[in-house]
């Protein structure tokens, strides 16, 4: 139990995917300009990351390892994640339309989100068990949400700031992202 | 050697095939059937997403129209042509119904020189921002500030600001009401296009207060409501309001208005409103 909590916390804070490992930067900068969209996107990421961790682990253990095809894991995982997202989309559209509407365009976008693939690959690299993989995937998703929500708050404030002409738009966003990231380096000590 | 190539190809290909089959099965089994008429209706709509129909954009209207929650004549942008096309798709009779064309009217005629300013505003050119500073720079708390929030919001470029007052170009206006939402003073009204007479004032205060701040304000003398045979004019506080549903376009109100506040608007040209004796 303790192990799982430690794993969860390290995935959320110490190894925060966006701010510490720099994965999934594209949605991080793309959809963090409003809090509501940031939450929608992160909700979808948590959802997909958790189930993707489960299925990629299964595919890796049952299929790739058995045939000695570990080197194919990247392409196989992309396949699994893409199919999974599509499947989830179909199911949600049919059975939970409100959630489908809330996630909207973010669900298909996640297909190409490198944070999801990153979580799957890290699970394999560190040889986590199936349960730990799922926990780590979930934690990574929550970490993504924390980063998104924090940064959306920062960006909403940036909107009203008097920024020098040459820094307007993406440059100041990059600088702000770097500062938030530096802040997260403070958690490094937590992992021991 | 050959095996080293074939096995990965077979596994990946098999994986892909498996997922593909799963997905196609799932989409057949769990897929939501979308009425194909929705797509067709959506295609004939103009795609302005203005919201004049009262739904969230053209997609929302198409869905509502097909499911029977909306009439086919709600799209004021597309007008008659679109209504007829929708009628064809849904198999509805379009000979008797018509699209009511609407237009926005700015209920303020106080251009430069007709009203005073309280202070020199030098902030950003934005009505909402200006209103936040002591209720706005204009002496009249109900008049047009003239910084063009409505013009910026208009998706059809149908609003111009002239001599400090916004004006709607009737030929371009589709009556979507985007300007109504953004105006901090709430002085734009959506009315049917053929009703030509509009009170260009929104100040409900007593006549002497209105006179102090504006030369062309409605002083609430009630001459127009007395002369109106249709009973379309009522006084809301001390400002006359014309009810477009009752108005018969007779123009008597404009003739008696002592302050030339009631103006006649052209039905479908970009010219400004006209008043008698001006």
Question: What features would you describe in this structure?
Answer:
The complex is a heterodimer of chains A (192) and B (278). Chain A is an all-alpha fold. Chain A has one domain (2-191). Chain A contains nine helices and no strands. In chain A, α4 (73-95) packs across α5 (97-103). The longest helix of chain A is centred in the N-terminal third of the chain and has 30 residues, at 35-64. Chain B is an alpha+beta fold. Chain B folds into two domains: 36-90, Electron transport complex subunit B, putative Fe-S cluster (3-methyladenine DNA Glycosylase II, Chain A, domain 3, Orthogonal Bundle), CATH 1.10.15; 102-264, Alpha-Beta Plaits. In chain B, the strands form four sheets. Chain B has a two-stranded antiparallel ribbon. Chain B has a two-stranded antiparallel sheet with strand order 2-3. In chain B, strands 5-8 form a two-stranded antiparallel ribbon. In chain B, β2 (159-162) and β3 (165-168) form a beta hairpin. In chain B, α2 (36-44) packs across α3 and α2 runs antiparallel to α4 (79-90). The radius of gyration of chain B is 27 Å and the shape is elongated. Chain B starts with a helix and ends in a 14-residue tail after the last strand. The model of chain B has no long low-confidence stretch (mean pLDDT 81). Classes of the chains: A mainly alpha (192), B alpha+beta (278). Chains A and B meet through α3 and α4 of A and α1 of B.
